[in-house]
Specification:
With about 140 residues, the chain is mostly helical. The chain contains five helices and no strands.
């Protein structure tokens, strides 16, 4: 079967001898059409794979978000318990102030450390370099 969907029986009936006498232009057109079809097929495959992975990531993210929400509620209730425990020996407003201040200090430390670590993250220098080399190689190949 050729790229047009014709079987060998169809080719024999339509003059298979013409296939042996095809011009270089026709052969190049057929090659270009085949390459285009391969590229289209690869793009379709990539699209299907990415869609499937996106679905999996989305469902995982929903579950992760739900777990994080319950974790936040858990921390809030533990902080309330600490505040109520402090109310035994201190006034309610003072125990709430102490727990709130300690919580803000912890949040500030977490933000500060996180920012420092984010600044330490660099661009993928090796990948950028190899892409530049590949582009240079392609330019040289196109010239020759």
């Amino acid at each position: 079967m050729d790229y047009r969907g014709r079987t060998s029986a169809t080719l024999e009936g339509s003059g298979a001898a013409d296939l042996n006498q095809r011009s270089i232009g026709d052969v190049l057109k057929d090659i270009a059409a085949s390459i285009q079809e391969i590229v289209r097929s690869e793009i379709k495959l990539a699209k299907v794979e990415l869609t499937d992975r996106a679905r999996r990531v989305r469902s995982s993210a929903v579950i992760l978000g739900g777990g994080a929400l319950f974790g936040i509620y858990g921390i809030a209730f533990i902080l309330l318990a600490i505040m109520f425990a402090l109310e035994i020996v201190l006034p309610a407003w003072l125990s709430a102030l102490i727990v709130g201040a300690l919580t803000l200090i912890g949040a500030g430390l977490g933000i500060s450390i996180g920012r420092q670590r984010m600044k330490a993250v660099r661009a993928p220098e090796q990948t950028i370099q190899t892409v530049k080399e590949d582009l240079q190689w392609m330019k040289e190949q196109a010239k020759s």
